[in-house]
Amino acid sequence: MTTLEFTLVVFLISAVAGFLGALTGLGGGVVVTPALTLLLGVDLRYAIGASLVSVIATSSGAAAAYVREGYSNIRIGMFLEVATTPGALIGAFLATRTPTSALAVIFGLMLLQAAWQSSRQDPDEAANAAPDILATRLKFDSSYPTSGGQRPYHVGRVKTGFGLMFGAGAISGLLGIGSGALKVIAMDQAMRIPFKVSTTTSNFMIGVTAAASAGVYLSRGYIEPGLTMPVMLGVLSGSILGARLLIVARTRVLRWVFGVVVGLMALEMIFSGIRGRI
Amino acid sequence: MAVWNDERLERIVAKLLRAGVLLSAAVVLLGGICHLAAHGAEPVAYRKFQPAEASYRSVSGITGAVARADCRAVIQLGLVLLIATPVARVAFSLVAFAFERDRTYVFVTLVVLAVLLYSLIFSH
Lengths: 278, 124
Prior knowledge:
The complex is a heterodimer. Chain A is mainly α. Chain A is 75% helix and 4% strand. Chain A has one domain. Chain A has helices spanning 3-24, 29-40, 44-69, 74-95, 100-120, 133-137, 158-175, 180-190, 195-219, 225-246, 251-274; strands spanning 142-146, 149-153. Chain B contains 4 helices and no strands.
């Protein structure tokens, strides 16, 4: 392929990835990296570098739409970033010392988990957490807009959530993804934050987490301008469209559809990694 | 002066993020068009990993290459602007929490900012 053809193909793939990633709150990186390595045979390290940078665009570009709707919670996000950013730095250092075949298998396992998670949960009506002393002191409790007006929520199990977030940050730095799936688990499942607040706050945090490992990726030469250009522009265009749709979309159907697509990609990544083809 | 509260903070943060993303996307697009105009017909694959050239791996290297009218460095400059956007967001939140006199969150935000600057400024 010529540079022009290659750039256009990469742009299209990235736009679809960004669209799906923003709709589900899982981030475009989880789709764009396997797509580039499996479909186009791009080296995993280049794909990871391009994906990480575009994850920042996804997060920041969509955050504007979410914040205006009043879903994301800046205080919860900032506090949990204390855990995700050091995690991301450590993950990025580990990434430069791990063979790509092993990274591919870890990537696939993480994808499987994300797929399983996104097709499984019940949306929103999850029981609210009991008031938690730490959450109250940190001013986490807030409310979010629903069809029936503002609905207040409490936040629980702050320490568990914080620990899970460190792991989410490390996975983000290791694989060059936003690791939105793990962030959503920490908030939605452990801390009992309403699903829409969890996905949007996760989206909001992803950019900051990714910026922490981006410095390491840049100085290690993982960020290749010719490849990252169409990935970043594609993921950004797709994510802006996806974020517009999120406000009206039904989360259960979305999770199921995304779960199947991501599950298939996951198996292919694991298989290719074990066979040493990545 | 208007009162500082979370709602106002969130609105400004959202605008800041969008402006940063749009600016960086414009710079990346400019560099991309310039790069494709010059090298669009050449073959490319990225199948084999070779670390990006040294001049694309640090902020000083990138700005130096941009001054030499290197299109790929213009793309890289846009990407650095993008990476800097969440950092600017955290820095802004620091100021806003200080205006709100929220010491807990000033401390929380300082820790996050320190980690980000460590990653971006030093060579790894």
